[in-house]
Amino acid sequence: MKHMNSEVKEERTSNKKRIDLFLVPIVLIAAFLNLFKIWADEYANAYYTAAVKSMLQSFHNFFYASFDPGGYVTIDKPPVVFWIQTISAKIFGFHGWSVILPQALAGIGSVLLLYVLVKRTFGVWAGRFAALAMALTPIVPAVSRTNNIDSMLVFTLLLATWMLFRAVRTVKFGWVLAAFAMIGVAFNMKMLQAYMVLPAFYVFYVVATKITWKKKIAFLTTATALMLAVSVSWAVVVDSTSADKRPYMGSSQTNSVLELAFGYNGINRLTGNTSVTGSSHKQPAQTEQQTASSETKQNSNSSADSSQSSNQRKSSFSQKMQAPGGGNQNGMFNTGNPGPFRLFQKGLSDQISWLLPFVIFSIVGLFAGVKFKGPYTAKQKESLFWLAWLLPVAVFFSIAGFFHQYYLIMLAPPIAAFAGAGAVALWSMYKQHNDWKSWLLPGGILTTAALQVYIMSPYVSSIGVAPIAGVGALGVILALVLAIRKQRKNSLTNYLGAAAMVVLLAMPAYWAMTPIIYGGNSMLPSAGPDSSSGMGGPPSTATNSKQSGFNGMQPPGSSSGNSSSNNQMQPPSGSSNGGQMQPPSGSSNSGQMQMPGGSSNNSQMPNSFSSKSSSSKRKSGGMNAEVNQKLLNYLTKNNTGEKYLFATTDSTSAAPYIIKTGKPVMAMGGFSGSDPILTVSKLKAMIKKGEVKYFYLSGMGKGGQSDVITWIKENSKEIPSSKWQSTSSSAQQGPSGNGTLYEITLK
């Protein structure tokens, strides 16, 4: 206990010291990467931004995280992050940047928290390098520059880690409760993903806490119970509320938060489940891996390969779309093929794996000489914590059937922590030992430089040969020189070691800047020269390097001005789904497109991604983040008191109109159009009550809603396109048909 008390006193003394001047530029770098030009993103991720617009209008919408102002359906995630975004929008006004700001600040906060966590045990230089590695991990700023959840989730888990470390140092039960309660809060951000750190929390507390086993078991049991209570608190309230008094729980099949948590946002991510069935509809709902997002429509700028026949595309595509989670070279959404080396494959390695070889060498060094039965030093205990975070998460991403590239931010804290702690530890071993441990530093530098050359090689057409050759050559030279100069304790050796660290961080730093340089994608954030495409993989055949993934989409009722069938992406030959998409012939981005919440819809993948980087406001919401003003004028003028401006199949067409007007727009099938929310009888009752009379149907999102859509078409009158379409074209380009506006009035 005397030792613990001395640590607490030391911590208080340390807190009184002045600011670490070396930390200031690191924080400024993080602030630049996370904040610069976020004001250019007008809609951000339109699906979530529409929810914030709705949540601003009433406490009912706020509490349930309703997607639409009418309280018809919720978004597909729990509400905590969106509560924070709504508060930010209330304070600063409703803008794209105001809903992004909390995540950007969380990204900066994660850098600071990691510095604090690593510095205390491993030293100030370890803390600095860990913070810098966190700031420069490409996927971290890429995600933090959007209104997706993951940046806030990581910050919350790091805050829980700080509480856990304090609980171990002070041996106070209150901090244990606080740490596990914070994981419960994180669960209400992104559900089961928050629990990925639990192995690290349990292992560390058992190994590091100097109390009896009886107390350890009692404390952990109580803390776990509290965590579970906090985790399900919102879910229990929602699920126990009568369904007619709250919105439908979006993306669930049984209108249940718990089903959403443990199914759609839980086990299905691991298994890559490709078939779910609505509770009231026996047709399979379109799932994440069978279908592509409904917002990706062909833009007017076709690429060079648009002249190739659809049959050629079908042939190449049908061979690629195989196993869940990626049955081709790049996998679905460039997540690679499941296996032990998945994190080193294209599409994932450039997001997170730049320092992984150095981390592996660091782990070897940090655990060198450790005996299973202990005793363990403070450094070994905390190294065990970061290892217990790193390994389970890495295993999940290596075998998971479905995830997006930006989920990899979960690996950033342990990788950065090991990079910082390992840099100091390996340098010390290099300077002080003559045995095998002295070779870990040059070995780590050499293998890491080799991996970075491998990561960059597919991008030679975008970044040139020079940086690739430079990293490779400098890595080899510095590793060899350090190996030759072992045991020479002079300033030149110190400079060589520092230079090696700079070389290893140079290209991650560039990659971290790519969302600023080339433009980002708010729906599918990723880093790299094609970061704006949302595919985060090797360059496609698009000729413009500043691609903007979904910016070329057209709003409901508009025409792209190019109706060539060659520009339309076709499903595989023989497919009855119509939702599996063919990428441009010759493109390395062979995966399907995915919408923000993790679900999907029928769609077409554009042949090229047009750039709007010259626009003062970038509408890169990854959905139809455009409003057809003529359609809006028609609907507004002809509204006779109906609650909903119009109804549509899914959230794609609804979101921009909610953002623009703040009026209720009904996404009949929820986010992807597959939620079994509406029945024919319920729709009839709504029409008779005067709640809705206009329906915009584009052939999208029919999973679980086909009977409703059939009834609408059979019992409505079609509105002439000349009254509401923005051009003289009679058809809007749509995934599986022409968009049509219908009117229904029942007595």
Low-confidence stretches: 1-5, 274-329, 540-554, 559-616, 619-624, 728-737
Share of helical residues: 40-55%
Q: Beta-strand level of the residues, as a percent range?
A: under 5%
Number of helices: 26
Mean pLDDT reading:
81
Q: Give the biggest beta sheet.
A: 5 strands, mixed
Number of β-strand runs: 7
Gyration radius over CA: 27 Å
Strand order in the largest sheet? 4-3-5-7-6
What is the molecular shape?
globular
Distance between the termini: 79 Å
Topology of this structure?
Blueprint: H1 2-15, H2 23-35, H3 46-55, H4 59-64, H5 80-92, H6 96-122, H7 124-136, H8 139-144, H9 150-170, H10 173-190, H11 198-208, H12 213-239, H13 257-271, E1 276-277, E2 284-285, H14 310-320, H15 349-352, H16 356-366, H17 378-399, H18 412-432, H19 440-456, H20 460-463, H21 465-484, H22 491-517, H23 629-637, E3 647-648, H24 651-661, E4 666-667, H25 680-688, E5 694-697, H26 706-714, E6 717-718, E7 740-743
Parallel strand pairs: 3-4, 3-5
Antiparallel strand pairs: 1-2, 5-7, 6-7
